[in-house]
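Today's session is about reading a structure prediction critically. Students often jump straight to the picture, but the first step is always the sequence itself: look for stretches that repeat, for charged clusters, for runs of hydrophobic residues. Only then move on to the predicted structure, which in these notes is written as discrete structure tokens rather than atom positions. Here is the chain we will use throughout the hour.
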Amino acid sequence: MEHLLAPQIEYLLLLQNFREITGGVLDNFFLFITSCGEITVPALIMACIYWCFDTKIGTYLFFNWSLGTVVCQFLKTFACIYRPWILDNRVHPIDSAIKMAGGYSFPSGHTQTATSVYGGIIKSFKNKFLRIFLIILILLIAFSRNYIGVHTPQDVIVSLVLGILLLFFTDKMMKWVDGGKSRDLAVIFGVIISALALLIYEEFKVYPIDYLNGELLVDPAKMRLSSFPKLGLYFGVFFGWFVTRRFIKFNAKIGTVKEKIVRFVIGATILGIIAAQTTHLIGAGGNLKYLACVISFISGFFTMAIYPFIIVFVRKKILKKEV
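Below is the predicted structure for this chain, in token form.
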């Protein structure tokens, strides 16, 4: 393993040296770029597409992201590879970046999110300039994780490959579901089995217990805690899709531009409130992981089913009044 990591650490030190020589002139730029791979921006983009433009494409993006997040979490737990500055104390990340870089390093969650969401948009929309812009953005986000010193090249490369594979897997899965009766039930069964398998694996996984300056490098309890909201969202997205597919006749293309703007602003506000509660619970730690899981489930289910139902219901009421 050391012969693989050595050149990667040297690469990070080279970037670090560039930061120091230039006085960090590009630090804020790459911190901004890396923030585009955090959940907030991609989630709002996915929700906007799902609620206001194209429900099928929005579903595809949510599937890519939620499935990718669960796979990424499994790989982190399985590999248990420490962050670059733990692997080599010569590596000094940008201070503000460390706060958002907890847990294990491999693979990169930011890169996985960017590839799953922005890559899904590239695959779904034919606009040449949009595609070029998003390809550059994905690569910049991946590079930014190295530049700010919180991931090695192997972390981002694996996430890029994982994200690309899931783009095609999810596309095939959705086409398979549309090709036969009750195949959506098989997908839900697969979601339940995969989620339970990850929970059981993480519960009985033997984590490395290493200390640095008297502090535990990675707390197994925090790793388990971080899995619960991700799995809750995973359940919420797929069960919401199932309910909408079976019972709610929702079409994102309906409504005027003004209606869609109002629709998005209201939905995004509610999602923001729910997400804030999840973040608070994760920060609190303890046995609140189950509640964090439930609230994350509500977040996914609200996005995929409850809010579309509200949109359809309100539109019907408005149309009846107009008649």
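Discussion point for the tutorial: Residues 289-322 form the longest helix (34 residues).
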